[in-house]
Amino acid sequence: MVDLRAQYERIKPEVDQAIQEVLNSTAFINGPEVKLFAEELSQYSGAKFVIPCANGTDALQIAMMALGFKPGDEVIVPTFTYVATVEVIALLGLKPSFVDVLPDTYELDPKGLEKALTSKTVGIVPVHLYGQCTDMEGVLAFAKKNNLKVIEDTAQAIGAVYTFSNGTKAQAGTIGDIGTTSFFPSKNLGCFGDGGAMFTQDPELAERLRMIANHGQKKKYYHDSIGVNSRLDTLQAAVLRVKLRHLDKYSASRNEVADRYDEAFGTLSMVKIPKRAKNSTHVFHQYTLQIEGGKRDELKAYLQEKGVPSMVYYPVPLHLQNAYREFGYNEGDFPVAESLCKKVLSLPIHTEMNPDEQEFIIDTVKSFFK
Ligand SMILES: *Cc1c(COP(=O)(O)O)cnc(C)c1O
User: Fold this and answer.
1) What is the position in ligand 1's atom list of the atom closest to the CA of 187?
2) What local confidence, expressed as pLDDT, does residue 370 receive?
3) Annotation says 187 is catalytic
4) Residue 51, strand partner residues
5) Which of 19, 221, 348, 355 is 20 to 30 A from 109, comparing alpha carbons?
6) Which CATH number does the domain 247-368 belong to among 3.40.50.620, 3.40.50.10800, 3.90.1150.10, 3.30.930.10?
């Protein structure tokens, strides 16, 4: 699905040198690279504060702790997303209040928000799924009206730009109270292991996020709140500093691949190409088709046999996962997400895809429908 080796080969001298410098310094924990990376990502994203942490799941958990969400509180979240978003809600004793997604952009459907709201609701977690932004204007208006906090799960959409109706632009993750992201190797900005970060514009929240990520302490051995141990390794920060310099180029290559797929599949009647959201650029973390006529699994098996990888993100919506049965949802509650789980298929998309490789993928998909 991605070619991390080819990507590494192209930046090998830069990355190897950065890693070697950390090895020479032996400042493996909280070395200077961590702070430098946070500053550079702050410059790049427009978030005033960037607080690195150990992974994207921790980032979500720390965000919810920093906002003071308490057991029994409810958090609105799309049911069509990666499990991490909902896992931390449940782990903190909160209750996920699911909403459906839009059938064409796969983003949270703002029309479902009102129904998900109760007197216990404290927050919303829009997920910028596959690489483009949720309708943030709709989410913010609803949050403001109902006094809710907004945490943007930006694990799949780092660098995507949202345009408000007044023309103002902002990057994914810098719009809500807190944005969270992941540097898992296959994410758009990936390191060589685990990593994550939180974004905010609010200095007090930034301080709380930093404190919670560091055992609830501002001063060593003086603990003001219950915290966690969640750090970005210096080695990973060194790698990320190099890769951040290439991120715009990486997003542009992903878009070229997506455009070629669009052109190739736009005319296939059984295939729906991904729709671009109106107010967002797309960084194509995933290129996801919808396969009509119940043929998705057959196509996936066919592709596998011909040597073309493909993936189903995600086969089961979260409200129907065994782990989340206790929250009382049933089949039929979120028909769009349930139907998408049967239709979606993501094709390889990455920064090093050459036209010959892509031609082979395109021809193989097309040959299935002949
Ligand atoms: C990858 C991902 C996460 C979790 O990131 P990790 O770094 O793997 O913990 C959270 N949310 C979404 C939508 C993701 O895709």
Assistant:
1) 1
2) 87
3) yes
4) 198
5) 348
6) 3.90.1150.10
